[in-house]
Amino acid sequence: MAQLVKNLLPRRDKRMLEGIKSGSSPFGGQSQRYRHDNDDGLGTSVGRHRGSSGLSPRRSLGRLVPPPSPPEPPSPCPSHTSALPGAINSWDQTFTFECPGGQVVSNVRSAHCSTAEDRVWRFECKSVPGVSSFPEHFWTPWVNDFDGVMDFTCPFNSLVTGFKSEHSNSQEDRRWKVQCSKTAGMVTYNHALTPYQNDWDTAMDYTTAQDYYLRGIHGYQSDHHGDRRYRFDICKLRMDGC
């Protein structure tokens, strides 16, 4: 019966049947059964086909991978006076600044260090025409919380004559007190709010125009940058002669 089936098959199918019986592949080369019989159990036959090294997958798993390099330490901050000549505070330091009698804050400079996530500060003052001293002045409570918005303007026609500030290392921010001062007959007008005077992590150098005076400070903080942006409330001034 088998001989009859063989005689009925086409020539190509006969060759395939004979190859299966002999253990060779009908498509050329050795059959799957032959490759299994010649595998030495160590995977070396597989390794010879996977790479020029000839290493088996089992042996390659034993190779040690070196650990990643540690990150570079952050660069230290420069000295406060190198970062900002004339700075009145060092990094993370509390400071208090007051203008001499009869003067108001006219210039605010600042430099930032990302390692300390803080700023150093310098202030300058200018005289008010017709005013030799301010008999009335007061310090505010803190005008912002750490990480909070700052939105303060001196009341009662008074002007900014001083700042106090302290830094928090845990929140990487500063909070502020402001000294406001006035004298009888002093009236502020033409109130305006400046654009923000610094970008994140950059220096600031703001000076009021010749006939304008500082009457407030505003700002907000970024946890991502560890910094605060600032802008200022300014005005013109007249004396009513009271």
Which helices and strands, and how do they pair?
Layout: H1 2-8, H2 11-22, H3 32-38, H4 44-50, H5 57-60, H6 80-83, E1 95-98, E2 103-113, E3 118-127, E4 136-139, E5 150-153, E6 159-168, E7 173-182, E8 186-193, E9 204-207, E10 213-222, E11 227-239
Antiparallel strand pairs: 1-6, 2-3, 2-9, 4-7, 5-10, 6-7, 8-11, 10-11
> SSE string, helix = H, strand = E?
HHHHHHEEEEEEEEEEE
Q: How would the global form be characterised?
A: elongated
Structural class assignment:
alpha+beta
The low-pLDDT segments are 24-57
Strand arrangement, major sheet:
1-6-7-4
Helical fraction equals 10-25%
Please provide a written account of the structure:
With 242 residues, the protein is α+β, with helices and mostly antiparallel strands. It folds into 2 domains: 2-52, no CATH class; 80-239, no CATH class. It contains 6 helices and 11 strands. The chain has helices at 2-8, 11-22, 32-38, 44-50, 57-60, 80-83, and strands spanning 95-98, 103-113, 118-127, 136-139, 150-153, 159-168, 173-182, 186-193, 204-207, 213-222, 227-239. Strands 1-6-7-4 form a 4-stranded antiparallel β-sheet, with no helix packed on it. Strands 5-10-11-8 form a 4-stranded antiparallel β-sheet, with no helix packed on it.
